[in-house]
Design goal:
Elements: E1 9-13, E2 16-21, E3 24-30, H1 32-42, E4 47-51, H2 52-57, H3 63-72, E5 77-80, H4 86-94, E6 99-102, H5 104-108, H6 111-120, E7 125-127
Helix pairs in contact: 1-3
Amino acid sequence: MIKKRIIPCLDVKDGRVVKGIQFKGLTDIGSPLELAQYYNEAGADELVFLDISKTEKGHDLMLEVIETISKQLFIPLTVGGGIQTLDDISQLLNHGADKVSLNSSALQNPNLIKEASQKFGSQCICIAIDS
């Protein structure tokens, strides 16, 4: 029997969780830490954290936020948004992410998927597809 898994995805822009439709009409719905704790306590199987402002603005990775959140969770944390290099992946994993999610960079540089899987293990490399 296939087990159903509950994996919430938090879209984060400028350090706040937002909700919109196709990344438009965004409304602030709360703190990433508070919502991560909520889903952790509610029994989610995993949590996905997508920094949508990283892709837009190219700011630094939100390593402190990821580290703080990962210390509060007892479920796997997947992080995505603007990840371009093996160094980005390494930093995220070293700051508490269990997995990373590649999107645009996987299309722009498909070899990144192979390189990352070989260096960090295929279990922690995910590909996100916006359709």
